[in-house]
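Is this the right way to post structure tokens for a design question? Let me know if I should format differently. Anyway, here goes:
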């Protein structure tokens, strides 16, 4: 099983004997359709539960301006999906301490370095399990990164995510809404 779209597309093309690859967006939309078809209403209930769990974590991280991103934000979860939250703070160790106090069972942390548009940046990735038994990844970015626009490699649109207030509103109005490009 491949973890990245590019490798999966190349493997599928080789197996099918074709040379034209679908876009990441086409693959993502098809995976979403298949997940909904196979998982049905249980998927919707799991999405709502994961969004509620994310809200609890985000409230504990409120001082760090948390944003829910990834498949839980988009509403495209499938079995094995985790909750992805990014926060903004210049002392990542404080975030780790806050998460531990909030009941997150921290499994590992890893420092990641990326280069985008010629600029190198680092972020701390905190992997753990919530009190609701969901896998969670919290990415701690520098404060100066807050509000910077980034493009989604999968869908090709801007990663917007949800703040605490936006997630609360969503859970009250349309808790299973999807955020897909038009």
């Amino acid at each position: 099983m491949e973890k990245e779209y590019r490798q999966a597309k190349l493997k599928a093309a080789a197996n099918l004997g074709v040379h034209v690859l679908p876009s990441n967006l086409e693959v993502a939309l098809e995976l979403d359709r298949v997940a909904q078809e196979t998982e049905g209403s249980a998927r919707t209930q799991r999405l709502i539960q994961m969004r509620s769990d994310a809200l609890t974590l985000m409230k504990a991280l409120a001082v760090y301006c948390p944003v829910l991103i990834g498949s839980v934000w988009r509403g495209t979860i499938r079995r094995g999906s985790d909750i992805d939250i990014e926060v903004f703070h210049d002392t990542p160790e404080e975030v780790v301490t806050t998460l531990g106090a909030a009941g997150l069972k921290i499994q590992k942390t890893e420092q990641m370095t990326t280069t985008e548009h010629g600029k190198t940046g680092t972020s701390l990735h905190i992997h753990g399990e919530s009190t609701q038994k969901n896998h969670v990844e919290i990415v701690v970015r520098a404060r100066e990164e807050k509000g910077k626009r980034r493009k989604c490699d999968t869908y090709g649109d801007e990663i917007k995510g949800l703040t605490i207030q936006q997630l609360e509103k969503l859970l009250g109005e349309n808790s299973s809404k999807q955020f897909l490009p038009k």
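Format looks fine. Someone answered above. Worth noting: Strands lie at 67-69, 83-88, 105-116, 119-129, 135-141. The chain has six helices and five strands.
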